[in-house]
């Protein structure tokens, strides 16, 4: 007899609340706001990275529930960000080393002038409706993330552009005329921000029916039960958890601290893997001189660990 029992859905647990946020808005005072925002984050014990630019705010931060609540309220108290949305998950330990607030030309770097999601953007699709759209034979599904992210997880039947950076995405679109072969284009990314610009770019390139997953993979994994999911693998996240799975539970990936790519336990068994020095993905790209330098850094990390300290370079 076949066992049809549905296992309990994994849930995110941990003492630290992680908030992923972004909001596109005209924000000409972004430079003067940097220090104010940084001080507020420090006051509430927040760590992570926030990017500020003339087009808005983007980033991921972590802290106590109370601290995150207060800093989100502080950001939304700015008139430009009153309507900002965010996504929450949890971490068993603080997933960031320090707090950084950076000034940028773009809050997500595509490198195409005058792309403004506030003026033109694709159609948002809620996670509950996403499976129906991407199962439609008239839909081309595109992952807008980079190759090290897609390597550990992707939606079933998605097209992977294999880009190293988001800057490569516009050229990839222009060099793939086959994208016009079907009437619908569906796009997704980790939290939704890259798709804001990607769908805006596609609309400007003449694509008519362009859709994107509202809230990104993170919202999909949070809301869609695993037994109904079309997601395969884990979702890369830009903090020390490295990956999350269904229910936003922490994944089992680690980072290669030489190339910052996610690795599995299986990869760690490779003769080309050396902790903090190399992995199969970057071994051929490094010289022995590079590896010696990384070994020295790894030694300093281990010495700091023995002293009960965290090496600042990790």
What does this structure look like?
This protein is α/β, with parallel strands linked by helices. It has 3 domains: 16-103, 2-Layer Sandwich (Alpha-Beta Plaits), CATH 3.30.70; 123-233, 3-Layer(aba) Sandwich (Oxidized Rhodanese, domain 1); 253-314, no CATH class. The chain contains 9 helices and 15 strands. It has helices at 30-43, 65-76, 127-134, 147-150, 169-174, 193-204, 216-223, 265-268, 288-306, and strands at residues 16-24, 47-53, 56-63, 85-91, 99-103, 123-125, 139-143, 153-155, 184-188, 209-213, 231-233, 235-236, 243-244, 254-255, 262-263. Strand 12 and strand 13 form a beta hairpin. Residues 1-9 have low confidence and may be disordered.
